[in-house]
Amino acid sequence: MSGLRYVYAVCRPFEAALQAQLGGVAGCPPTAVHHQGLVAVVSTVPADEFDEGPLRHRLEDPEWLTATARAHEQVIDALTTVTTPLPLRFATVLPDDSAVRVLLETHAAEIRAVLDRLAGRVEWSVRVYLGDERGAEEAERLAARLHEELRAAAEESRLHPPRILKVTDDEERAWGRNLLDAAYLVPRRQSGGFVETVDKAREVLPEGGVRVHLTGPWAPYSFGELGGGR
User: Fold this and answer.
1) Which single residue of 36, 107, 109, 143 could bond 128 by disulfide (Cβ 3.0 to 4.6 Å)?
2) Where residue 176 sits, what CATH number does that domain have?
């Protein structure tokens, strides 16, 4: 059975080359499928691993899931250095290049509109954790105030359900309760000021184990509507 197409993202055509050593999902280097002024970045992956049945089984394997998600994000991160990609949903798999072109043509107007809105912008993630419930009331006010400040500094924002930043069980206990989990869409050239706002918030943290966790800049995972989402 021939290989399938794993689709990472869609974007405008770009001239810069991706990293030569970029492996991609399943160790398959990414390539580009062009159609009507749009580009889908894909890898040709083995059907015995990514066809519907095998893929459903693989998604239940934590080790495989972690490795594949890491490879997926590495390609998106590489794209972010040369263009503004619209990431697709993790494990978007299509039968062949023709199906990829149908995707681009069917959603062409929507894709172009989203890419225009996202051009030159990146996503920053901010999470606030409370390690000691004795400081809960003040920490909750701080998290709400920080979100308002960052929302004002960003073009768009998204609030996500609270979650635990878990690396090990000990670290999960150390981070504590999640008070804020938000994404912010920021023009790349304004990212320095955005980071400075977060740093200033860290300087006035109350006692009680409050932590502000900033990551980015990312591709705008939270702000694209075409099967997107991290």
Assistant:
1) 143
2) 3.30.70.1710
Residue 172 CA from chain centroid, whole number? 22
Q: Count Cα neighbours of 30 within 13 Å in the Cβ-side half-sphere.
A: 27
In angstroms, what is the C-alpha Rg of the chain? 20
Q: Which of 89, 118, 147 lies at the terminal end of a domain, its last residue?
A: 118
pLDDT at 1: 43
The tokens for 56 are 């459903």
pTM: 0.82
Distance CA 97, CA 32 (A): 10
Closest CA to 55 of 90, 100, 97: 90
Long-range contacts of 62-66 (CB under 8 A, 24+ apart): none
3-class SS of residue 80: helix
pLDDT tens-digit map of 19-29: 667 889 999 99
